[in-house]
Amino acid sequence: MATIAAEKPQFRTAPSAHEALKEHFEKHPDQRMSHPHKWDVSRSDIYAEDRWQPIFREMREAGPLHYIPESPFGPYWAVVQHKAIQHIEALPDLFSSSWEHGGITILERAEDIPEEERLELPMFIAMDRPKHTGQRRTVAPAFTPGEMKRMEADIRQRTGELLDSLPRGEVFDWVDKVSIELTTGMLALLFGFPWEDRRLLTLWSDWSGDTELASVRELDQLRRSFLHEMAAYFQMLWAERAQQDPQPDLISMMIHSEAMNQQSPEEFMGNLILLIVGGNDTTRNTMSGIIHGFDTFPDQRKLFEQNPELIPNAVQECIRFQTPLAHMRRTCTEDTEQFGQQIKKGDKVVLWYLSANRDEQVFENPDKLDITRENARRHLAFGYGIHRCVGARLAELQLRILLEEMHKRRMRVHVAGDVERVRANFVHGFRKLEVEITAF
């Protein structure tokens, strides 16, 4: 397996997706919409600058969903209230997730790409029933309560060792040293991925999870080249596992499953992206969001320090507060009226989980982190209905263990330098979070 990495030294110095996009728009500022619709929440600048909250608040006050006639991603419906998102998620036949209709992100298919260069990536989250059901059932056993129990000791050991290795009395980047390291290590174990190459998973996650890259032709070509490299690496792992007895890793589960062992290369790549982005970006950004949230609300950090029994609820509240995936998209399959609005067949319907988790009708004082919040579990960060996140239990377990191990070490983490947020409308999180550790 080491020879695979040796053939691809460009991975080691590859630019981050975030830096590539930032550089592109600095050189071509004219390519962003100069007069965006006031409620176009697809604009990535409002997330990079952390000023999305009042825009969504105004939209929620005006109604559950709104038509945005113009955006860099074409026209779409923005669904912003908690109740409306649950309602639409509960109608998966009327509001399709299928890649054939447009998939699960706000992204539009670029019409100017030649047929032979198109990269359509089916994945089970971007499928409708019955195919979605069979493929989801294949990977679900990796996330059962029994599996969580089996993995807990290993996660705790890795988390503890990492926390013990962190520098004291100096500023370092929490995102790189903790959030990326813990989640990438977890993914490597789930896939049975070569440990020494695990940072490739982070690279692939960033390039596949950033929807805005696809709006820039040359960056989209680079993105597709990374995805093909990822597919080639995993196909080698597939060939290797196919010669072995069934193992508990996700690749082996796919090989030994009727629903997934005949996947096309595109489908295999799509499901890999789903599992990598789903298992990496989400937990990674919540691990950073916890630190930033506790620093912003020191009264909540103090509550955590004095009441470790609040940790399970704190996990739910931190997931609600961070909401690591801002949206999911559906496509309407027939004309329908919803909440007094006429939605046409083919319309793009974008469910803004970020807004639902700040809905004043559900969460009192929603812009405050409150680890004692009684209904924190009502957050929609994992989605709702048949597409609810299959790895939710694993995310909760990793976050709970991180807080428990920090508490055990009486570790207090202060934001002590640069805070850089992801410039994207899909993945919602941090690129950099410079911190310093003290004790409580």
TrEMBL record:
InterPro entries (alphabetical): Cyt_P450, Cyt_P450_B, Cyt_P450_CS, Cyt_P450_sf
Keyword Lipid metabolism included in the entry's annotation: no
Protein name per the record: Cytochrome P450
PANTHER family: CYTOCHROME P450 YJIB-RELATED, P450, PUTATIVE (EUROFUNG)-RELATED
CDD domains, A to Z: CYP142-like
Keyword Metal-binding: yes
Keywords of this entry: Heme, Iron, Metal-binding, Monooxygenase, Oxidoreductase
Coiled coil: none
Gene3D superfamilies assigned to the protein according to its UniProt record, in alphabetical order: Cytochrome P450
Family, per entry: Belongs to the cytochrome P450 family.
Pfam families listed in its UniProt record: p450
Taxon lineage: Bacteria, Pseudomonadati, Pseudomonadota, Alphaproteobacteria, Sphingomonadales
Signal peptide (from-to): none
